[in-house]
Amino acid sequence: MPNKFQQPSQAMLEAADFICKGGIGGIPTETVYGLAANALNPSAVRKIFEAKGRPFIDPLIVHVCDMDMAESIAYFDADAKKLADKFWPGPLTMILKRRECISDIVTAGLDTVAVRMPAHPITSQLIRTTKLPLAAPSANPFGYVSPTTAAHVREQLGGKIDFVLDGGECKCGVESTIVMMTSSPKKLLRPGPIPPDAIEKALGEAIDRSPKKNEAHPEAPGMLKSHYAPKSRLILFDDPAEIPPDFEGEIIYQKRPDSPKKRDYWLSENGGQEECAHNLFKLIRALDKNSKFGFYCQRASNSGIGLAINDRLSRAETKLK
Ligand code: TXA
Ligand code: MG
């Protein structure tokens, strides 16, 4: 992977050219792959919604490579600067008051914009090369599980987009933590790799960890009850005793069972939460391709990135009820 000082590769230069000309393409981040367009070009941004089948009421995150670019699209107060200082580049998205250059199509007409500085060298280099902020949702058809490899992006969107930059498997495997900075108290809109404790510690104040969800006007439509879902039936469990003995589908455990059976799968060898998050969407996607009877998946413990794992699992489950 290129570092800060390496020359851009041919693939990078082609991708940059597509972005500058109003094209769209897959980009790697440390969380999941994004589907990017020039955030300052409304007709390019429109193509993202069309490729994903995403409703225009669902605003996008804008990705930047440095603080100058971040401050050119949104207003940062002292708290926002504190979090940027502590967690960027990294898997934190802040909802901030937007500046004029960001159009309604990006923000769904809201007066706020979601801003994030991703920590993946390829995408940082793409943003530096184009000198453009990139609007990018996760690169999956709307409502489906997010992609964590370039192959996932090609499989589902390959025919509809101009390029995919391959940056390997995404390190975190679940989408960024989203914090609304413009409300009082500040709100956790989506749990992610950075746990709420770390945010509160950095801010020196409590945030609302489970803001009331308004299904008609959700503050983050990704927070809709049913989202991030596979096609197959998915049922959650805590204790394996909850699974009917005659169940013939696949079972996903958080850690390797002592004596695994034929259709048993696990997200980690020993229950390490980061490893579980890293593998979650990849495994669900793989099983979803051929599952006949659907699958059971064990909940994570409710702390750290386990909060994000359980959040995504419960949305995936709800869809089928
Ligand atoms: O890790 C991530 O955040 C990935 C990578 C590609 O950066 N992106 C991602 O984007 O997950 P997306 O579009 O799948 O989810 C962004 C969420 C959506 O639920 C959207 O509704 C919410 O952020 N959002 C965006 N702008 C917002 C705003 N101004 N106010 C409230 N929510 C907003
Ligand atoms: Mg998404």
Give a short summary of the structure.
The chain is built from 10 helices and 13 strands. The protein has 321 residues and is α/β, with parallel strands linked by helices. Strands 7-1-2-6-3-5-4-8-9 form a 9-stranded mixed β-sheet, sandwiched between helices. Strands 10-13-11-12 form a 4-stranded parallel β-sheet.
Descriptive notes:
With 321 residues, this protein is an alpha/beta fold. It has two domains: 3-172, Alpha-Beta Complex (DHBP synthase), CATH 3.90.870.10; 234-316, Threonylcarbamoyl-AMP synthase, C-terminal domain (Rossmann fold), CATH 3.40.50.11030. Helices cover 31% and strands 17% of the residues. The chain has helices at 10-20, 42-52, 67-73, 78-87, 104-107, 121-130, 150-157, 196-203, 273-290, 306-318, and strands spanning 25-27, 34-38, 61-63, 92-97, 112-116, 134-135, 163-164, 177-180, 187-190, 234-237, 250-255, 264-268, 295-298. The protein has a nine-stranded mixed beta sheet, sandwiched between helices. Helix 1 (10-20) crosses helix 6 (121-130). The model has no long low-confidence stretch (mean pLDDT 93). It binds threonylcarbamoyladenylate and magnesium ion.
